[in-house]
Amino acid sequence: MSEPVLEIRNLNVDYGLGDAAVQAVRDVNLTLHRGEVLGLAGESGSGKSTLAYGLTRLLPPPGVISGGEVIYHQENGEPYDVLKLSDRELRAFRWSETAIVFQGAMNSLNPVHKISTQLTDVIAAHEPKLSSATRNSRAKEMLRLVGISADRMDAYPHQLSGGMRQRVMIGMALALQPQVVIMDEPTTALDVVMQRQILGQLIELRERLGFSVIFITHDLSLLVEFSNRIAIMYGGRIVEDAPAAALYRDSLHPYSAGLLGSFPALRGPRRELTGIPGSPPDLKGMPTGCSFHPRCPKAFEPCPDKIPVLGHPDVPDGATRSVACWLHPAPEPVG
């Protein structure tokens, strides 16, 4: 396994303060390795986007990081905690080291500015010594990388299709050659053909440029096809983390199995979709013990009372995966 580029250690994110605070992310430990595509899956409200905005310090009020570390490993330099950066250091860190592609490209792009202006502004903010001609040249190169003709530089966002706007956002994220690209459900509003085109192009760019990806989605079928590793979130916690092929072939947590059963198989014979009964937990009143136990078909005696620890299970490939489930109690905790 390659060296880590980003380590999330015991990260906690709350909305609100004091007794009224709601814990949206709880004791998350996660490592992104250099050159890896890490998928992050779970139902709406499981904490996926909150985790992404917390580790990049983009949380809107009343979001508060209440504990933990986010260690970034530079290619040439000492690792440092992103949560301890000053405002000036944080401004330099964003885009040049870590970039994010938001869910709605139309809402992320400024509707009154041309694509050329928005691309070159990102470059100018971080590399002010570059000439205008050099910035324009790099902006055109970014568009070509994501499959858009350079003659669309002078178009406004509303003059582009949804797929093209999303490609512009990917090009903007790659403009400063960051080491980590976070994609927050970037293909949700697109049809399945455009989804495959954009994701295929993203993988091609990753292989060419060498950056790492955190890909957030509720669609586990996409992650199985495009990710190296998948982490499953439920109730603000990581409940399973495994290589994509291993999770698809033999998921250990009942919630992961439920997610896999909620989507049609990419290949092979047709099968009946099972889904997951019930609804995600209310973060203001989380169930005791394992938060999934009220919906779990395999719940048994310890589940309602004791919170399972995320750790390496005692299975043949246990060293490469982790799970938080009493069906597979972990002798070796993670973090």
Can you describe what's shown?
The protein is α/β, with parallel strands linked by helices and 335 residues long. The chain has 2 domains: 250 residues, P-loop containing nucleotide triphosphate hydrolases (Rossmann fold), CATH 3.40.50; 80 residues, no CATH class. The chain has 10 helices and 13 strands. The strands form 3 sheets. It has a 7-stranded mixed beta sheet with strand order 6-7-8-3-9-10-12, with helices on both faces. A hairpin with a 2-residue loop joins strand 9 and strand 10. Helix 4 crosses helix 5, helix 5 packs across helix 6 and helix 6 runs parallel beside helix 7. The chain is globular, with a radius of gyration of 21 Å.
What sequence of helices (H) and strands (E) makes up the elements?
EEEHEEHEHHHHEHEHEEHHEEE
Overall strand count:
13
Helix content: 25-40%
Average pLDDT value? Answer: 90
Overall form: globular
**Uncertain stretches:** none
Radius of gyration from the alpha-carbon trace, in angstroms: 21 Å
CATH class of the largest domain: Alpha Beta
Amino-to-carboxy terminus distance: 18 Å
What's the CATH superfamily of the largest domain, by name? P-loop containing nucleotide triphosphate hydrolases
Strand portion, in percent?
15-25%
* Structure class: alpha/beta
Instruction: Please report the number of helical segments.
Output: 10
What about the largest sheet?
7 strands, mixed
Using the coordinates shown, work out and report the CATH topology of the largest domain: Rossmann fold
The total tally of domains equals 2
Q: Just name the CATH architecture of the largest domain.
A: 3-Layer(aba) Sandwich
Please state how the strands of the largest beta sheet are arranged side by side.
6-7-8-3-9-10-12
